Amino acid sequence: MSQAQLDDIKNAYYRINKYLNRTELVSSELLNKEIGAQVYLKPEQLQKTGSFKIRGALSAMTLLNKKQLQNGVIAFSSGNHAQGIAYAAKLLNSTAVIVMPKDAPKIKIKKTKALGARVIFYDRQKDIREEIGETIALKENRVLIKPFDSIHVISGQGTAALEVIEAEKNNKKFDAAIICASGGGLAAGTSIVLKNHNPKCKIYTAEPAAWNDHQQSFAANKRIYIKNVEHGICDALESPVPGKITFAINNKNKVKGLSVDNNEIIKAMRFAYEQFNFILEPSGAIALACLKSEKIKFKNKKILIMLSGGNISKDRFYKYIAR
After folding, report:
1. Strands laid side by side in the 38-43 sheet
2. More confidently predicted of 230 and 307
3. Which of 11, 185, 262, 306 is the most core-located residue (most Cβ within 10 A)?
4. CA gap 236, 53 in Å, rounded
C-alpha cells in the first residue's frame, strides 16, 4: 500500500477536520447477534450537508489558490456531492455552479440552491454531464471538481476511515468493511486507510442489483459500463461505470463487490431507524443491507459499515419504511 496515498489522506484531514462533524461509531447488540460478528457503523449521514461528500469537496477546495476561489468552481452531481461543493464554496468565500439531473430528488435540489449554488439541469437520458461541466468550466474559468475521479476528492473521502482507525486504535483491527459505491471514491479512500492498518482486511463495495458496475468490473478485472437500465431508488449510486482512478485503487486493493435489491435496502433503512433513530436515504443504507443479506460471509469478523447519507424527504422516507 502506498504510503504517499495514506499521507495524502492525513494531509487532507489536517486541512479539513476543523470544518467537519466528528461522526462517532455506533453498534447494536441485536445486529451483532444477527450477523454473529462485531459490527461498527460510521453514521456519515450526520455529517454536515447530510453525507460524507463534504469531506472530498473540502479536500479539493482547500487546495485552490485565491484566484481560483475568486473564479469559483463547478461540479456535476445528483445531490450529495452538489451539497458538499456548495457548502465548501460558501465556507471558503467562493461560488459554485452545479450540473444536476432534472429528476434529482427535490430535497437535494432545494438544499443545493439554499447553500447559494447556481443549479443547471440536464437530462440523464440525452445529455452527458461531464461535457456540460467541462464546457461551463472553460467558459466561466471555473475549476471543475469531479465527484470521485480525483486524487484530492478520494483523499478527502478517506478521512472518514482515518477517524475510525483513530477511534479504534487500541482494539482489534477490522477484518472487513462494506462501503457504498457510485464512482468508488469512498471505497478507494477507505481501502487505502484500512489496508494500511490491516493488509488482510477485506473491502466490499455495496450497490443496487441493477447498477452493480463495480461488482461486475471487479469480477472481470476491467471497468464494465452499465447501459440502458432504469433509474431506481438509489439516485446517489447510479453512476454507470467505476471511475478510472478509483477502479485502479480499488482493484489493486482487491476490493470485491456486493449488491442487493430494493426490498433489502428498505429493510436496512427500517432497521437503522428502529435501532438508532437514523434517517438514511436508500444509498446511505445499502452497505448495511449488503451485510444483512450476506451475513454468512461475515460471521465472527470485526466489520466496518459506512452509512453514507441521509438526504431524503421525511415523506419519502416514511413511505419507504412503511412498505
Report:
1. 38-43, 302-307, 176-180, 202-208, 256-260
2. 307
3. 185
4. 11
Q: Which candidate in 53, 108, 195, 302 is catalytic?
A: 53
Q: Check pLDDT > 80 for residue 1.
A: no
Catalytic (active site) residue 78: yes
CA-CA distance, 254 to 244, in Å (whole number)? 15
Give me the catalytic one of 78, 94, 259, 293: 78
Spatial distance between the Cα atoms of 183 and 164, rounded to a whole number of angstroms: 22
At 267, list the grid cell.
Answer: 429493510
Residue 177 pLDDT class (50, 70, 90 cuts): very high
Q: Do β-strands 96-101 and 256-260 pair in parallel, antiparallel, or remain unpaired?
A: unpaired
8-57: pLDDT as tens digits:
999 999 999 999 999 999 999 999 999 999 999 999 999 999 999 999 99
Q: In what order do the strands lie in the sheet with 73-76?
A: 118-122, 96-101, 73-76, 143-144
Same domain, 95 and 227: no
In terms of residue numbers, what domain contains 129? 54-144
36 and 155 co-located in one domain: yes
Total count of domains within the chain: 2
What pTM did the predictor assign?
0.96
As a whole number of angstroms, the distance between CA 197 and CA 170 comes to 12
Cell representation of residue 54: 463534504
Work out whether the CA dihedral 232, 56, 150, 254 comes out positive or negative. Answer: negative
Let me know if 259 is a catalytic residue: no
